[in-house]
Each structure stands twice: as C-alpha cells, then as structure tokens.
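Notebook entry, structure prediction.
Reason for the run: the old model in the group folder had no record of what sequence produced it. Starting over properly, with the input documented here first.
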Amino acid sequence: MSELAIKPTFSLLPQNIDEALRFADYLSKSSIIPKDFINNPGNILVAIQWGMELGLQPMQAMQNIAVINGRPSLWGDAVIGLVRASPLCEYVTETDDGETATCRVKRVGEEEQVRTFSMADAAQAGLKGKQGPWTQYPKRMRQMRARSFALRDMFADVLRGMPVAEELQDMPTEPIRGTAQTVTQKIEAPEALPAYPDEKLTENLPEWRKAVQDGRSVPDRLIAMVSSKFTLNAEQIDKIKALADIEGEQA
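New structure, fully documented this time:
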C-alpha cells in the first residue's frame, strides 16, 4: 500500500511528437489548467518543451512558465525549487530586515555569494511606490529581486539562462526611453497545418507498408514525417500504426 502511495503508476510525459500533439490537444480542452493555456495547444506544447529542458513535469511547466515582455521566464517559487533540488546547491537562505532583502547562496565547491535588494534600490529603479505589488507587497518584491540576482548569477546552468518572471514584470518594453511598462504575452499557437488528404494517405500506404516490412521505417517515424507538414486525424494515425501489425503477422 505504501509503494502505491509513493510511486506513480504512469507518466504524462510524452514520448514522441504524436503523443505530445495529442497530449497538448487534450489538455487544452480541460477547464482546470491555467487560463492562458485553455484552447491553446500550441502554448501547451511550447511550455512542455521548456519544462523538459528544465526538468519540470508537464503540469509543473504549465504552472510555472510565463512569457513576459516577449521572453519565457520562471516564477520565483519554481526558480528556488529547481536550484534547491540540484546537487550543485549546498544552501539558499533568505532574510529581510524590513528595509533590505538578502539572499545567501552557496554552490558546491565555491564560496558563499550574497545578493541584496533594498528600498533604496527600488527607489533608484523607479519601483518604490509603483502601483501594484510594489505598493501592496514590498517585502515580497524585495525578496524576489534579491533571489533573482543570487540564483541567476550562481546557477545559470541549472536555470538554463531563464530569467525570473517577477523581475521581468518590472522591466520596460523599451528600456532606453519612456516609462516602465509591463507587457504579459501569451505564447502564440503555431499556424494550423492543413489536414492530410485521405486520398494521399491511400496512395502512400502501399509504399509505406513495404518500407515497414523491409525495416526501412517504422509507423512512428512516418507519423512524425507527415505531422511536420500536415495534421493527421485519429483514423489516419491508426491506419499508419496498423502497418506495424501487418509486419508482425507476416513475420
């Protein structure tokens, strides 16, 4: 009983492009995913790919990856989670004296590094008293800035160079002129591919069947090849996958 409570019985991580496309489509129709992903399978597919590179499971990626001012970023809680889970991290400690947030980090084999962010820093950056979180939760915002500086400096390899969302939200879209503005942007779904014609499938099936029988290809590879230019429906995918069954019967 205890093993069932600890070990997952299955994984939602897609194993190939076909599974990823189907998975993204299924999730986009769910009502319990973040609203930016509802009816946006392209958003989901990109977020899952980013998550895989960072070591996040698909649902974690959707909860913790955002695109702000045109750049993919991680929310601060996910950043510290990834760093603390890395064997390269000895510790991360955070304190705040009411005026200055301090983040102390130590990477294995290196000296402790300290980064701070004070209200004086916030005033210099034009953030002090800014409408929104800097007015409502200044302590939390100081903490996120100090954390961002420390963890991005010391664990850029763990974070794959991803910036911190809370920091990007405060950056202007045009930093050289104008006032600071934040633009939160969705990951745009790629342009829909045309449907694969049934007559084209019927024409190609004999040749593909021979390629599978000769060991020159496999159904998953054929599906991936077609899916790069066209959209296959479930019935067409099943017909291509059935080529493997024909091969097995003849063997």
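Summary: Residues 102 and 116 are 4 Å apart (CA to CA).
The old model has been moved to the deprecated folder.
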